[in-house]
Amino acid sequence: MNNDYALITGASSGIGLEYARALASKGYNLILVSNQADDNRRVAEALSSEYGVDALPVYADLTRREAAREVYDYVMERE
């Protein structure tokens, strides 16, 4: 399995979802950030199943001032 991860915001729909699909099809593992927790979880499960990649759904409302730091901390903890 590829150890590279791509972090995608707005990953539960629209352009973010299309980026996630494209990267998953190339074998990238995914960190999927969205403020739509249930949709994001479903997307992560579907992409993981379809492409055999690790897809981690992360809930974050990026309009919150501290959200970027929280996402960063989450990623660093997984390293």
Account of the 3D structure:
The protein has three helices and three strands; from the N terminus they run E-H-E-H-E-H. It is of the alpha/beta class and 79 residues long. Strands 1-2-3 form a three-stranded parallel β-sheet, with helices on one face. Helix 1 packs parallel to helix 2. The mean pLDDT is 94.
SSE map:
Elements: E1 5-9, H1 14-25, E2 29-34, H2 37-51, E3 55-59, H3 67-78
Parallel strand pairs: 1-2, 2-3
Helix pairs in contact: 1-2
Supply database-style keywords:
49% helix; 79 residues; 3-stranded parallel beta sheet; globular; 3 helices; 3 strands; alpha/beta
Oligomer: single chain
Radius of gyration: 12 Å
pLDDT averaged residue by residue: 94
Low-confidence stretches: none
Helix-strand pattern, N to C? EHEHEH
Helix content: 40-55%
Q: Number of helical runs?
A: 3
Helix vs. strand class: alpha/beta
Q: Strand fraction band?
A: 15-25%
Q: Tell me the distance between the termini.
A: 16 Å
The coarse silhouette is globular
How are the strands of the largest sheet arranged? 1-2-3
Q: Can you summarize the main beta sheet? A: 3 strands, parallel
Count of distinct strands: 3
Summary, kept brief:
The chain has helices spanning 14-25, 37-51, 67-78; strands at residues 5-9, 29-34, 55-59. Strands 1-2-3 form a three-stranded parallel sheet, covered by helices on one side. The chain is of the alpha/beta class and 79 residues long.
